[in-house]
Structures are given as C-alpha cells and as structure tokens.
User: Which sequence fits this backbone?
C-alpha cells in the first residue's frame, strides 16, 4: 500500500509539473501575434557576427507610429547583439531631407539598410547608389515604384508585409456597419497625396463606400498626415455637409483632428470616426468614448521583423516575397 501511495504521489507531482509547464507556455495575445508574425520569416537565424550594423531609415519620428516602430527595431538589435541605427526625416513630407539622409547612410557602409520611403519615387537615387556601393537594401513593404527603380538602373527587394488596402476596407466596413440601414454621407481624410500607403488605404475605403447603396462618399481630401491640416479639412467638410455621418482617416493623428472638429461643431454623437495605426493617443481617445475605432497591426513587431530582414539581406539569404504581419485582435 505504501508503494502504491508513493507511486500515486509521484504521478500527481508529475501531472502538476506538466500542468504548470503548459500554463507557463501560454502566450498573451500580443506574444501569440508576435510569434505568428515571426513564423512568416522562414530561414531567419540570429547572426553570429556581433559587429553587424543595420541601418534603418523611417519616415519621421514626429509620428508616434514610427516611434513605436523604432522601439521594436532597436529592441531586436539588442536581442540579437548587433548595432541598429535609426534615421528619419524631420517631417512626414520632407522628401528631400529623407533622400539626403539615405545617401549619407549608404556612405556610412552599413551591412544592410532597411528603408521606408515617403513617396514611391523619392528614394530611387539612393537605391541606385546603394546598389553601386554594394550595400544590400530592402523595403519592408511595397513602396517604391519598381519599374522606375529598374529604369534608373537599380533594384530593390520589396517583400509584402502589410496590406494597406485592407486597412482602408476594414475601416470603411466598420463605419458602414455602425451606420446600419440608414447609411448617410461619409468622407475620407487621406495622408500625403503621393504616399502609396495613403493611396492604398484611401482606395480600400473608397471601394466599400462607393459600392454600398445607402452610403454617399462626399469627398476624399489630403490631410498630409498633419493634425492642423486635417482639422481644417474636417471643419470645412462638416460645415459643407452638416448631416455627414462618418470619416475614415488614413492615420490616427488625422482621425483625432476629425474628432476635434466634430466636437467643435457639436456633432460628435452623429459622426463615426475611424483612424488607422492604434497609436497611444488613439487608444486613450477610444477609451474616453471619442474616437470610435482604429485599424491596426503592431508597428513594434514590424520594426523587429524589419531588422530580421536586414540581417538576412546582410548575410545574403533569400527572403520570402510575402511576410504577413498578424493583427492584434
């Protein structure tokens, strides 16, 4: 009997340890999303060269979205034990400054560069110079006009990571669902007119608004990713359309400006406002019942993945043509 009891005790302890191990392995929603995203980058391994230097050129640190992206990129560099240098333009529309910074980075001789152009053409001269200097260069999404790049004598790898079009689709669908059978007038606040991510989000939203019978798209205007410009645009749109019911915005900075305009007009209760990126200020606004929603993926994880892609480029490894970043639901 004593042996049986001891055996049962050992079995119970073993089962308890197994349950504890399983519980310890449970991932938070963010950790699961991160793991799922990393799984798309087949062939990645931590570099053995601690002297590796990856240069990352973003749009601007003036936008909280890119600050979070940079945090992810820097954190991944520390995790891998390599140097990750972050550079950016002063503002989201300063294409000349971004090009000059890019060319300086090429001259610095990084093992690889990750770039995110402001427009589809502004960094093409830098891409060509990187090719000539033998610096591997990658865009972590499809931005530069690949035909124009090739015509200039350059080449660049553009793995698809984000579906900007679907962000606009999902944002518009949310508004349509909220308005219900009654429908009504809606508007779009775009980002910078020449920015591919802005055009894709705008076109995605348009595809829903223009094909929903009870919805009337009254206008789509550029907010240039700027809060003041977007506030003025939204104010004018509301004045011209006092019965407007919804706004889809290509980022949260502009969406928060629309909320401000709707509040000033005393019409926030009638207007559904949806942004994009889920920055911290947007999260707070949603919690306070102001901004209605934001379409998002994790810019932090995107920054991490971008560095991993840069490492693979530096090591001459092939990259998948598509590396989808999972959304945090």
Assistant:
């Amino acid at each position: 009997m004593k042996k049986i009891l001891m055996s049962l005790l050992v079995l119970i302890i073993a089962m308890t340890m197994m349950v504890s191990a399983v519980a310890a392995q449970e991932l938070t929603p963010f950790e699961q999303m991160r793991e799922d995203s990393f799984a798309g980058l087949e062939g990645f391994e931590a570099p053995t060269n601690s002297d590796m230097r990856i240069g990352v050129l973003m749009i601007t640190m003036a936008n909280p979205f890119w600050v979070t992206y940079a945090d992810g990129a820097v954190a991944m560099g520390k995790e891998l034990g390599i140097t990750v240098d972050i550079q950016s333009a002063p503002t989201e529309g300063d294409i000349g400054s971004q090009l000059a910074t890019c060319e300086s980075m090429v001259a610095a001789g990084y093992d690889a560069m990750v770039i995110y152009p402001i427009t589809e053409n502004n960094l093409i001269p830098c891409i060509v110079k990187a090719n000539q200097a033998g610096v591997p260069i990658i865009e972590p999404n499809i931005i530069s006009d690949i035909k124009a790049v090739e015509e200039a004598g350059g080449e660049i790898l553009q793995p698809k990571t984000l579906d900007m079009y679907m962000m606009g689709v999902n944002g518009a669908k949310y508004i349509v669902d909220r308005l219900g059978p009654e429908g009504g007038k809606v508007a779009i606040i775009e980002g910078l007119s020449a920015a591919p991510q802005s055009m894709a989000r705008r076109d995605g939203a348009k595809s829903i608004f223009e094909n929903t019978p009870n919805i009337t798209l009254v206008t789509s205007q550029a907010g240039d990713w700027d809060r003041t410009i977007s506030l003025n645009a939204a104010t004018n749109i509301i004045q011209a359309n006092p019965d407007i019911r919804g706004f889809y915005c290509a980022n949260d900075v502009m969406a928060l400006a629309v909320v401000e305009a709707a509040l000033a007009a005393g019409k926030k209760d009638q207007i559904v406002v949806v942004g994009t990126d889920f920055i911290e200020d947007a999260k707070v606004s949603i919690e306070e019942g102001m901004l209605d929603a934001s379409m998002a993926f994790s810019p932090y994880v995107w920054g991490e993945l971008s560095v991993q892609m840069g490492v693979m480029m530096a090591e001459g490894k092939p990259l998948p043509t598509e590396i989808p970043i999972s959304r945090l639901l």
About this structure: The longest helix spans residues 2-25. Strands lie at 53-60, 83-89, 112-115, 137-138, 184-190, 215-222, 244-249, 272-276, 293-295.
